[in-house]
Amino acid sequence: MDWLKFFRGEPKSTASVAKERLKVVVAHQREGRANGPVYLPKLREELLDVVRRYVQVPDSAVQINVQREAGLEVLEMNITLPDAH
Amino acid sequence: MAKIVVVTSGKGGVGKTTTSASFSTGLAQRGLKTVVIDFDVGLRNLDLIMGCERRVVFDFVNVIHGEANLRQALIKDKNFENLFVLAASQTRDKDALTEEGVGRVLEELARDFDYIVCDSPAGIERGAHLAMYFADEALVVTNPEVSSVRDSDRVLGLLSSKTRRVEKGEGRVKEHLVLTRYNPVRVQKGEMLSVDDVREILAIPLLGVIPESPAVLTSSNAGSPVIVNKEADAGRAYDDLVARFLGEPREHRFISAEKKGLLGRLFGG
């Protein structure tokens, strides 16, 4: 009977346990997300433009990564130049 | 120019194909020329849900490889003249889909259609990646259940980084939450995450809530998208969802349990 639960002091509902667990999992998951700042894609495009003024490189030549390590954010850029002949 | 919408979730069995079938049918019912593409190469199923499995001659991979043209591979729906299906291939070759090939086919379809709906496979492998890569908007299908919500969050991470729009700096993919298999009675009892719980965790706008409904199975038995069944709660919920997607305001229905009388509340379990 439902009204008895009130007196018995039932434990937390499983739905609220699920919500608490998910909050922790999702917060952890989002920490690792290396989306970086919103300007990143544009920065990449402009870098490509500048590089291409001097040397022809494919779209994949410019790699940008954001890494978070111990509270420190590192912006890493890799530009691969074509083989010199 | 067509709008490309991916139906995705990460987790399997949450209702991606059911949603793709009903969403595309709903768009076509409103006079919008729509094509729905099955990206689940190797495990073709959309054709069954759409009821056109016996009319698949050529598929998506055939078109990508140039073995058939789009006109040959597009299957016209029997009931809605604006609706077309592009079936997945049954090949076991994992590399059958290529970014260049998918892009080329979508570009060709975009000239002719208003909407391109991409039914993503489960997981976050190649098929799922390519289904979302070209998207303008995404329907993230989620069940009110821990593993599904976590996987949806993973997929949101991918949508915000591994898509063409983001890579080209053209903005982000617009995300919509579609909560399926919702059971308001169990939510009321504290046995199931509520709409608000899921919204709070995933933090994306809610497009629709589809109640758990026997009509989903009977519709798939018959090969007719559940949205066609206007008697069923799930069918009406999908109709609301499509209307909302197109900007028509509609209140959310089927999200609260029917009220019980006093006796029911005292003695009901």
Automatic annotation (TrEMBL), chain A:
<comment type="similarity">
    <text>Belongs to the MinE family.</text>
</comment>
<dbReference type="InterPro" id="IPR005527">
    <property type="entry name" value="MinE"/>
</dbReference>
<dbReference type="GO" id="GO:0051301">
    <property type="term" value="P:cell division"/>
</dbReference>
<dbReference type="Pfam" id="PF03776">
    <property type="entry name" value="MinE"/>
</dbReference>
<keyword id="KW-0132">Cell division</keyword>
<dbReference type="GO" id="GO:0032955">
    <property type="term" value="P:regulation of division septum assembly"/>
</dbReference>
<dbReference type="GO" id="GO:0042802">
    <property type="term" value="F:identical protein binding"/>
</dbReference>
<protein>
    <recommendedName>
        <fullName>Cell division topological specificity factor</fullName>
    </recommendedName>
</protein>
<comment type="function">
    <text>Prevents the cell division inhibition by proteins MinC and MinD at internal division sites while permitting inhibition at polar sites. This ensures cell division at the proper site by restricting the formation of a division septum at the midpoint of the long axis of the cell.</text>
</comment>
<dbReference type="InterPro" id="IPR036707">
    <property type="entry name" value="MinE_sf"/>
</dbReference>
<keyword id="KW-0131">Cell cycle</keyword>
From TrEMBL, chain B:
<keyword id="KW-0067">ATP-binding</keyword>
<keyword id="KW-0131">Cell cycle</keyword>
<comment type="subunit">
    <text>Interacts with MinC and FtsZ.</text>
</comment>
<protein>
    <recommendedName>
        <fullName>Septum site-determining protein MinD</fullName>
    </recommendedName>
</protein>
<dbReference type="InterPro" id="IPR050625">
    <property type="entry name" value="ParA/MinD_ATPase"/>
</dbReference>
<comment type="function">
    <text>ATPase required for the correct placement of the division site. Cell division inhibitors MinC and MinD act in concert to form an inhibitor capable of blocking formation of the polar Z ring septums. Rapidly oscillates between the poles of the cell to destabilize FtsZ filaments that have formed before they mature into polar Z rings.</text>
</comment>
<dbReference type="InterPro" id="IPR025501">
    <property type="entry name" value="MinD_FleN"/>
</dbReference>
<keyword id="KW-0717">Septation</keyword>
<dbReference type="GO" id="GO:0051782">
    <property type="term" value="P:negative regulation of cell division"/>
</dbReference>
<dbReference type="GO" id="GO:0005524">
    <property type="term" value="F:ATP binding"/>
</dbReference>
<feature type="domain" description="AAA">
    <location>
        <begin position="3"/>
        <end position="149"/>
    </location>
</feature>
<dbReference type="GO" id="GO:0016887">
    <property type="term" value="F:ATP hydrolysis activity"/>
</dbReference>
<keyword id="KW-0547">Nucleotide-binding</keyword>
<dbReference type="InterPro" id="IPR025669">
    <property type="entry name" value="AAA_dom"/>
</dbReference>
<dbReference type="Pfam" id="PF13614">
    <property type="entry name" value="AAA_31"/>
</dbReference>
<dbReference type="GO" id="GO:0000917">
    <property type="term" value="P:division septum assembly"/>
</dbReference>
<dbReference type="GO" id="GO:0009898">
    <property type="term" value="C:cytoplasmic side of plasma membrane"/>
</dbReference>
<dbReference type="InterPro" id="IPR010223">
    <property type="entry name" value="MinD"/>
</dbReference>
<dbReference type="GO" id="GO:0005829">
    <property type="term" value="C:cytosol"/>
</dbReference>
<comment type="similarity">
    <text>Belongs to the ParA family. MinD subfamily.</text>
</comment>
<dbReference type="InterPro" id="IPR027417">
    <property type="entry name" value="P-loop_NTPase"/>
</dbReference>
<feature type="binding site">
    <location>
        <begin position="11"/>
        <end position="18"/>
    </location>
    <ligand>
        <name>ATP</name>
    </ligand>
</feature>
